[in-house]
Amino acid sequence: MIYQKTERGATLIEVLVTIVVLAIGLLGLAGLQVTSMQSNHSAYYRSQATILAYDISERMRANRTVALGGSYDVDFPTSSNSHSVNGNQATRDRAEWLNTLADILPNGTGKVERNNNLITIHVRWDDTRGQIHKTDGSDPTTTETFVYRTEI
C-alpha cells in the first residue's frame, strides 16, 4: 500500500523564519527613519544659521561706514537672549542678532571679523540632537559652526 502525502500550506518553521526576516527588515527601516530625522534636524539648524548670517551681513551693508569702522565686530559671547537693544544702530543690530541666535539655535552665538572690506561671520550652536553617531563608536562633535564670508 502506498501512502500519498499531500502538502498543504506552510509549516510552522517556515512561518517563524518569515516573521524573523520581516522583523529584521522593519528594524532596519526604523533605524533609517531615526537617522533621517536627525539629519533633517541638523539641516534645519544649518538653514537657520545661513539666514542669520545673511541677516547681520545685510545690516552691515545698510550701515557700511560704521561697519567698516569695526562697530559690528564681536567674538563669540556667551549664548544669551538678553543683550541690551539700545545705543547706536550698530549696537542695536549686533544685540538683536545675538539675541536671535540664542532664541533660534540651541546655545547659539556668533562672531563677526573684519579685514578691510572682507567680513567673516561665524555662527555657532550646539547640534547634539542632530548629530549622527560615527561608525567607529566615537562620539561626534556637538558644536557646529557655519562660516560665511562676504564683502561689504
Report on the architecture of this protein.
This protein has 152 residues and is of the alpha+beta class. Helix content is 47%, strand content 18%. Strands 1-2-3-4 form a 4-stranded antiparallel sheet, covered by helices on one side. The radius of gyration is 27 Å and the shape is rod-shaped. The mean pLDDT is 89.
Reconstruct the topology from this structure.
Layout: H1 12-62, H2 64-68, E1 74-75, H3 89-104, E2 109-115, E3 118-126, E4 143-151
Antiparallel strand pairs: 1-2, 2-3, 3-4
Helix pairs in contact: 1-3
In short:
The protein has about 150 residues and is α+β, with helices and mostly antiparallel strands.
Kindly list the characteristics that best describe this protein.
152 residues; alpha+beta; four-stranded antiparallel beta sheet; rod-shaped
Straight-line N-to-C gap? 100 Å
Structural class: alpha+beta
Radius of gyration over all CA atoms, rounded: 27 Å
Q: Specify the overall morphology.
A: rod-shaped
**SSE pattern, N- to C-terminal:** HHEHEEE
Taken as a percent bin, the fraction of beta residues is: 15-25%
Low-pLDDT stretches: none
Multimeric state of these chains? single chain
Strand order of the largest sheet: 1-2-3-4
- Could you tell me the number of beta strands? 4
Helix content: 40-55%
Mean pLDDT: 89
